[in-house]
Structures are given as C-alpha cells and as structure tokens.
Amino acid sequence: MLYWIKLPKKLEIIMNEYQLINKYFRKLSLNNIPAKKLNDDVFFDKSNKLVISVDAYNEGVHFPNFNHPDLVAKKVIRSSISDLISKGVKPKYYFISGSGNKKKFTKKNLKKLSSSLMQEQNRFNIKLSGGDTTFSNKVNFTVTVVGFSNKIIERNKARLNDDIYITGNIGDSYLGLRLIKGKIRLSPKQKKYFVSKYYIPEIPFKIFKNINKFANTSMDVSDGLFSDMTKLINKQNLNYEIYLNQVPISSQLNLYLKKNKLNKLNYIHFGDDYQILFTASPKNRKLIKSIASKINQKITIIGKILSGKKRNVIKIDNKSLNISDFKGYNHSF
Q1: DSSP label of 326
Q2: Which of 51, 61, 166, 270 has the fewest Cβ atoms within 10 Å of its own Cβ atom?
Q3: Where in the chain is the domain with CATH 3.30.1330.10?
Q4: What is the location of CATH 3.90.650.10 in the chain?
Q5: How far apart are CA 17 and CA 198, in angstroms?
Q6: Is the pLDDT of residue 211 over 90?
Q7: For residue range 57-83, what is the model confidence (pLDDT) as tens digits?
C-alpha cells in the first residue's frame, strides 16, 4: 500500500507498505514471535497451533464497485483464505466486518451477499464466526481467517538453486479488470470468462494438504508475480530468475494476446491471481508432478533461485530484463 505522510515543511513523501510497517509498526511486534516481525502472510502461534490472516478490501481499490455483491463476496473470501492455503493450512473459521450505507446495503444486495457467502462456506468448508458492521460512504470489508496447524511454510526459507513454481494460470484476472473498467471490448462469451476470473479466482484449495511435503517457502500472488516473488525472499541474500516462456497462461489469454499482437509480459505482473508461488528443491520434481496429477492441479516450474551476487531478472530466450521495470500493483491514497 502507498501512504502520504505530511512533513513539517509542507513536503510530502510517499511510503510503500513495507517501508511504513518497517518504520512505524515492526518494533511493536519484536517481542511477539508468532507475529513473524510482520514480514509474513499470517500470524502463527506454534504452541497453540493457531494460524491467522487479516485482509482489508475497499470499494474502488480492491473491487471496482458493489454492483454485484455476490461476486464481491466470492472475491474477498477466496483471496482471504488463499493466505492460509499457501502456508499449508486449512482455513476453518472466518470473521467478516463490513461498512456501507443504505444505498449499497439494500435488502436485495444483502440477500445476494449472504447467499454467496453461504456458497463459499459450503465449497471450502469454512464457518462464519463473527464480525462487525458500520457506516461508510463506500463499501469496505475486513476478513479474518483462522486455521490450526503444527507448522506453516514461511517466507524467506528458499534455498540456493531451488526451482520456482506457480499453480494455475496467471494474467486472466488483469484482463478481466480491464474489461470491467471498459478499457477493452471482447465478445460476451470472452468477457464472461475473464470477468469471472477476476471476481471468482480458481484458488488451488486442495494443495494445502500436500504443499508441506515439498515447498521450502511459499505465498499467494496478490500484488503481482514479480513483486510477490521479491517479497517471498526479501530477507535472504538470494535473487531469482523467471523464465517468461514458462509462465503459464490460459488458452483464452494466449489467443487474445496473439490475435492482438500483445506482449505476454505486460499481462502477468499485475496481481489478483491468487495462485500459489513457492520454491522447492529440484529433487522434488517427480513428487510435485505426481501430487499435481493426483489432485488435478496445474503446477509449473517458472524459474530458479540464484545467488545474492546475481540480480533478479526475467529471461526471454537469450535476453535478460530487469524485474524492477515490471512492478506489481500498489495502493495509493
């Protein structure tokens, strides 16, 4: 997230989420080991086997509007439980707080919201356990997800020469958002497909049972493939390379890019994919392939962990591009 901080001399500086947490809040968690120095996706109290994640969603930022409350409900639930899934933990309970007004929270919209939440509860076997409501001009939600586990897959546990993997496909959600915003036009059938991928991401739910068997470090892709890969190892003296040709995209997106002669690279780094990004030893390739087949989950090798003496790059055939030129999504205020 980006925040504007007022300075005494009426100057303004911009701070990203990491800088803000590091400067003002990390020190508050130093005596709280389960908080992971506020540099992971979840809180993990090992002694109580307790795992918690918290996510906030704002109208106009995380979803364009509240015209389809049933779709917004699916998006916020799936993107929230993906944090625990990426850690190898089954989500069990969720708490949801919402703010809005009588124009947005009509009886019709609330019925759609409730019905959609019930569908998600049944699909992922999670239970609503509390929350809060308040007034606001725009619709906002905060979702807290709770699970229980003896261990989690933490960030910053990658090893030199690890393979880098991604589940599912990348990029459909970004095209869906462009359609919702009216930036492009497609046939009704194509629009329905891509918009659905934005609001109803196909999160790799079944992988939570097996990812502990092979992953060294893991997180979900929310802010962008390259941006989140950098976060995944941000406290390690390591770098990485991503092979563009191996990054998986759907046949529908591939067709769209070819038809319009567009660059794949410009569609895979904006986030909202909610797939799982992880690293694993090359010796686990057969195991991962076997498990992927067993649970019917697409899992693709897309890169490699390098020495810290290298730099983060995107490999395209024999060329190398600087990762910093393809940043993910940032929130601004």
Answers
A1: S
A2: 61
A3: 32-148
A4: 163-325
A5: 23
A6: yes
A7: 999 989 999 999 999 999 999 999 999
Asked if 251 and 149 touch (Cβ cutoff 8 Å), the reply is no
CATH number of the 32-148 domain: 3.30.1330.10
For 183, residues 6+ apart whose C-beta sits below 8 A from its C-beta are none
- For residue 127, count CB atoms less than 10 angstroms from its CB and return exposed for 0-12, middle for 13-18, buried for 19 or more: exposed
* 3-state SS class at 146: strand
Look up residue 229 and give its two tokens.
């890969």
Q: Return the percentage of the chain with pLDDT > 70, whole number.
A: 94
Q: Are strands 43-45 and 50-58 parallel, antiparallel or unpaired?
A: antiparallel
CATH 3.90.650.10 fits 163-325, yes or no: yes
pLDDT of residue 330: 62
- 290-298: which pairs have CB atoms within 8 A and are 24 or more residues apart? 291/210, 291/213, 291/214, 295/206, 295/207, 295/209, 295/210, 296/206, 297/167, 297/168, 297/204, 297/206, 297/207, 298/167, 298/168, 298/169, 298/248
| Alpha helix positions (H), the chain | 17-20, 69-86, 107-124, 172-180, 188-199, 225-232, 251-259, 285-294
pLDDT tens-place string over residues 77-114: 999 999 999 999 999 999 999 999 999 999 999 999 99
Task: Give 294-321 pLDDT, tens digit per residue.
Answer: 999 999 999 999 998 888 999 998 899 9
Query: In Å, how far are 73, 132, 236 from 114, measured between CA atoms?
Result: 8, 15, 43
DSSP track, 93-108: EEEEEEEE-TTTS-HH
What pLDDT was estimated at residue 12?
A: 52
- What pLDDT is attached to residue 208? 97
Tally Cβ neighbours within 10 Å of residue 215.
25
Angle at CA of residue 133, ends 130 and 135, nearest 5°: 170
